[in-house]
Glycoside hydrolase family 43 protein (Micromonospora trifolii), 541 residues
Amino acid sequence: MSTDIATVATATRSIRNPVLAGFHPDPSILRVGDDYYLATSTFEWYPGVLVHHSRDLVNWRSLGGIITDRRLLDLRGCGDSNGVWAPDLTYHDGQFHLVYSDVASFASGYWDPQNFLVTAEDITGPWSDPVKLHGRGFDASLFHDDDGTTWLLGMSADWRPGRDRFGGIEIQQYDRAARRLVGSPRILFTGSPVGVTEGPHLYRHDGWYWLITAEGGTSWEHQVTVARSRELFGPYEVEPDGPLLTSFGRPDLRLQKAGHGSLVHTQSGEWYLAHLVGRPYSPLGNCVLGRETAIQRVEWPSGGWPRIAGGVPADDVVAPDLPAHPWPAAPETDHFDAPELGRCWSTLRRPATPDWIDLHTRPSYLRVHGGQSPVGRQAPSLVGRRVGAMECSLETVVEFEPADHRQLAGITAYYNTLNWHHLYLTRADDGRTVLELLSSDNGRRTAYPDLTVDADGVSRVGLRAVFDGPAVRFDYDLGTGWQRLPVELDATILSDEHAALIIDGEPAAWGFTGAFLGLWVQDLGGDGVHADFDLATYREQ
């Protein structure tokens, strides 16, 4: 099954969770007519804010990303798990509105966020130049009220030592005609006793204002909290029977970390909640696939509170009363015949521009010009795709002529600058072209010199990276058939949990992105080297 299209057996009319497998967190769901859209966070990866499309909530296809160039957001220098947090997608007066946060840091109680708004008449663009909103917090969202006014909500950050850094949900009016915030901000809601209140979405229904927030942090204690008020500015009463959704206290559940939700109302009057989940490899263990998107059915009786059966995430959910609408399956192999990168690919910290991504000079090949080292944050040359299953692989054929040890090209199982495995072609000191393996575990590198393979004189080399549950393996083909490197590497270091680091109670690093499989070219001497990839095949077991 492709990570871009979640195809579920329509005969059962059920939604199989997660609907977006692999790194697709913080979903914002939207219906426009008969079309449903899901926008998700992308952090340091381009294109920013991936959007998926459905007509039945069961089958989803990728529409690619909205933030495709530096005009909309510049991610040069972006730290690991910084960048685009928690987008919000709404539709009003014939326009799509996308709000997104660019979070620059999270050290010592600071986030340095900046919120932006772009608009378009069509979901595929073109999108307007960004409106610079405030930088008082993150997880910003828009609410279009029945009286025609529009309001910006967001988590209000408090940097002061000894204060709650999650200072509540803030609201301020946005003038759509003037394209700017007006009036003064005010705190709308300070959260429930669970705390860590963020991810607000506001709705008008049944004579009430309904505020949906994420609480408890984005790991095991995560939850969706509901509060309501008769007036826009409150006071807001929290649902007395507990959260709308959580996995906390239920380590037996397949779907953990349930939280950060948004609601959608179907044409036939049904309600559903899109939310994030994680699938640990062991009970409360590492989530190599990252935070994924799931959908739950919501029962909402007139005059009552919305509820999800059991208050926990279900693996299978009754689908809405809509005609089934499957999409064509995505091909396993990308032959790089298109004029631009396919929607399954993402690029790290810089968009796929012609200065380093070339699909034209050599037709049916992806030419990648080498970039910075694994720790470089301005111009890395990594083209990756999300890992969407515990058993999956990426296979490619590369042509590369390294001139020295500073030139590397190959395949990687990647999480962030500090956690990765890399099988690559390079040049040995004696002049031979060789295959080498290198791993990084929180920045501690491990080389495997005994596994070096002589590839001298071989013009085309097959490379394959395999995720097999908690293990990563690498294979190679020098023209005589596939051979396996005799080592099993730890896949669980490519996870949110492993990447997170707390020092003296302060976050030194977070992990929000999930694992990737990718094509990686490094030109550490800046000599203008490139590698040509003939194809790339992604398979899930």
